[in-house]
Amino acid sequence: MTVLERFAEIKARMARAADEVGRKDGAQLVAVTKTFGAEDIVPVLETGHRVYGENRVQEAEGKWPALREKFPGLELHLIGPLQSNKAAEAVALFDVIETVDREKIARALKAEMDKQGRRLRCYVQVNTGLEPQKAGIAPDETGRFVVLCRDQLGLDVEGLMCIPPADENPGPHFALLRKLARESGIEKLSMGMSGDFETAIEFGATSVRVGSAIFGSR
Fold first, then answer.
1. Which of 41, 55, 77, 214 has the lowest CB atom count within 10 Å?
2. Distance CA 131, CA 146 (A)
3. Which of 210, 151, 149, 162 lies closest to 189, judged by CA?
4. 48's torsion region: left (phi>0), alpha (psi -120 to 50) or beta?
5. What is the Cα–Cα distance from 194 to 118, expressed in whole angstroms?
6. Cα dihedral across residues 88, 118, 98, 52: positive or negative
7. Which residues, 6+ apart, have CB-to-CB distance to 166 below 8 Å?
8. What is the distance of C-alpha 218 from the center of its chain?
């Protein structure tokens, strides 16, 4: 299958998953382009799709500024871990930061947004599986951290994000993220990737992050 055929198939599967649970709104597709060059991305851009995700600031800097010039209206999400020394570059380049996972990053982002006069939308990353090797706020600390980011720092926290453990049923993790979001008065949920996006939509994902199922193996 070509990239465009896989892209169309993913969109169709997303629509079916939403229909099966009676969701009329569906979910937004964040097409994940990490490790893929402009030549791989352009065919999807030419369909009109405008929402993309990257894991690394430095890699995104190498390809997206030129693509923005050719394709207006792009919305670029940072979906990988952010180091505080890259906050300036991230604020300049991205539109949404999905990986706000500790106070140091929240404060660095706030300072850079004020400095650059940009207001990015943010998601708090939750480590639903409490995996020591994975970034994210612990579930029982999420409410307090959202209050810090939203009410004390004034960040535009529009959603929560999670990456369930690879060897576990993702459903309970998606259900937990949905519960935490409701408790904090948050509407958006970024959850689900190539292997489990249909389950995520069933549990209320408002956006799914799909890369390899569209662009192929890395």
1. 55
2. 20
3. 162
4. left
5. 31
6. negative
7. none
8. 19
3-state SS, one letter per residue, for the chain: CCHHHHHHHHHHHHHHHHHHCCCCCCCEEEEECCCCCHHHHHHHHCCCCCEEEECCHHHHHHHHHHHHHHCCCCEEEECCCCCHHHHHHHHHHCCEEEEECCHHHHHHHHHHHHHHCCCCEEEEEECCCCCCCCCCECHHHHHHHHHHHHHHCCCEEEEEEECCCCCCCHHHHHHHHHHHHHHCCCCEEECCCCCCHHHHHHCCCCEEEECHHHHCCC
Backbone angles phi, psi at 13, to 5 degrees: -65, -35
The pTM of the full predicted model, rounded to 2 decimals, is 0.96
> By the 8 A CB rule, do 19 and 7 touch?
no
Helix 57-70 vs helix 38-45: crossing angle, to nearest 10 = 50
Over range 69-82, report the average pLDDT: 96
Give burial (CB, 10 Å; 0-12/13-18/19+) of 124: buried
Residues 80, 100: contact at Cβ < 8 Å? no
Q: What distance in Å separates the CA atoms of residue 203 and residue 189, rounded to the nearest whole number?
A: 9
Residue 65 — φ and ψ, nearest 5°?
-55, -45
Q: Is the confidence at residue 218, as pLDDT, over 70?
A: no
Q: State the pLDDT at residue 217.
A: 79
Q: Extract the tokens encoding 176.
A: 């937990």
